[in-house]
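Notes to self after the call with IL:
- keep both proteins in one doc
- input above output, always
- annotate only the second one for now

Protein 1:
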Amino acid sequence: MAEDAFTTHRPLLFTLAYEMLGSAADAEDVLQDSYLRWSSVDPATVEHPRAYLVRTVTRQALNHLRAVKARREEYVGTWLPEPIRTAPEVSDDAILAESVSMAMMLVLETLNPTERAVFVLHDVFGYTHGEIAASIGKAEATVRQIAHRARGHVHARRRRFAPDSADSREIIQRFLLAAATGEVHVLMDLLAPDVVVLSDGGGKVAAARRPIVGPAEVARFVCGVVRTSTATTRTESATYNGMPAARFVTGDALDWLVAFEIHDGRITGLYGMRNPDKLHRADAVCPLDRGVPSRGNRDR
């Protein structure tokens, strides 16, 4: 049945759409459109359902990405990807964990839609240049050039990444305790020299509209945020985008969440999401899957 095949490959299809779009809501829209297209096809005529569905989702995601590009350029303040709650085992797949991290998703935003599709399909999902050419309707030689250009762009801009771990959790707990007690110097000791805070309020709630850089500035900012929290706000540990994160909850409402980027025992990045439009689905764990083909990623 068409529904069975789509359900089987849904984690792979969602992961692909999310990495191309940076939005779980947009990824779900693409999957819905792709399912409608798939359900109108006779499955008996499709020799390789997964390949067919990947091509369909890729093309739909490309169309969607081109449509939202202009809207994101007009975004109020800093735009961050919609955070997705990931299972702890995502961190066991280093490529998958890094590919959905906030830092990598922001780098992917700097690619044009075709470059992003080619990079994600080849370097993350392991598809060959020939397979990608069939998916996006370009010559294999052209895809090879696009892949080379996109990879160089990404590698020049990618930040250091370490997936969620027990050591990272311990650092975050020390950080949160120091923030709660206003110990600025302790905070600064936990921050890397090039630490940066990015906050996304979407113009709907208070958030820093520009990056905050450097240990002293970040420590002061964090202490200021904590002072404005209510006494009933509680902090919960979680994993988002393969990264250790803290959820700040008041009553039953998730006020904001922060994903932490940690390298060599220090915090190098904090990604704060406050935009309520991007928090409304933050409680559900998103199953992710790369579904790497056996012969994939061998044609660099």
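Protein 2 (the one to annotate):
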Amino acid sequence: MDSSEHSSCTTILVGKNASYDGSTLIARNEDAGVAVNPKKFVVMHPADQPRNYHAKGSQFAIQLPDNPQRYTAVPEAVDQNGVWGEAGINGNNVAMSATETITTNSRVLGADPLTKSGVGEEDLLTVTLPYINSAREGVQRVAQILKEHGTYESNGIIFSDVNEIWYMETAGGHHWVAQRIPDNAYVIAPNQTGIQEVDFNDPDNFMFPADLRDFVKTNHLNPANDFNFRKIFGSDSQLDHHYNTPRAWYGQRYFNPESVQGKSPMSNNLPFICHADRKITIEDIKFVLSSHYQDTPYDPFAPGVDYEKTPYRPIGFNRNQELSIMQLRPYVAKSSAAIQWLAFAANPYNILVPFFTNIDETPAAYGNTTGLLDSHNAYWLNRLISLIATDHYHSLMDQVEAYQEKEMGYGHQRVAEIDKLAAKTSQAGLIKVLTDENDKTADTVMKDTQKLLTKLVAQASNRVRGSFTRAHY
């Protein structure tokens, strides 16, 4: 699959002192170029990890180390176009989300062209996550791959561990910068180069290739006196103003209404590093990543609005494929600290399900997705719900929202129950217990979701065009 098919994601990062419980939180919608692009949730074991990796959608190939860790991933259900592992947590509780596709301006691309044999979104999780023991090591591994192989696209790549979050942005074929997200901050990244001022004397918070400043100076790339990565390497196009920037504007409006007061959704000076005036929850992240400009003139679902004429691309829409929020908790044992909250299909209608990642296998309803529609599969079940609810938004959303509130409560309940069980379980038996408990969580959620689908089908069927009742006479 061409990389443009996966070029519309939205990322939210929340430092440990900005989150509601002291966890690091990294989240990203994976959006495709089409509405239906089936995904599955899997555990990759060391024996299944390739040693000679060859991409299917590009010319990239690499020899991989012999010591991979177990890790979770959310790859394509049909792998004819490659893996596209997207989001996961490894056995050492390091999380990775890859990638937030971004743009690089023509001056940079002329000085450092993209390379067809380089690494890309299809590959990055597979060739990185099994081999790193910290978020910082994630940046270092990708940096080495970029140095040796380059890349054929510009990307934002996210790493976290229980202490740190790092956001890495590539520019051109071989250049990049990574910034440690401050513990008390949050970030919203919408397919644009985001990192701003780079402090070259602060290795605790910035990483970059050794030649970065010389490269910029030699090629006359800096239009200003300071070193602003976004202004030097990024773009500021009409597409950005309508497709990308408004998503950051709406997210910042949600967390800090005063910060965007008077600013246009097309503003080109929204900050990268932001600070909320309250702690950020899982529900907050889900709301923003499901949003479509509610309570603004730009909501495509507002009464009387022609959705085809709305000026800005929503965050939550039909091309969402999966959302992973990776939560690394500091207040429980490391062996049960990592949770991947997962949602499939369009985010305005789905719910997050908490899956502990120290497991042998994922629940069948989430792991056995195929290219054929199956209402017993989580991806397809949620895709059906989104199809029906979108076309009957105002008559069905009360049912959807009641379901969402109930299931989020259930998710938090399950985390608390499993934490208590894990605390009483020996390390030798913990993986099996967490695997079994994930199955129980998934079973309940699937039953509730199938009940929701039944209600929506019944109600929507009474409202289809051409319906007729004897009450007309």
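Annotation: The first strand starts at residue 10 and ends at 14. Residues 3-328 form one domain.
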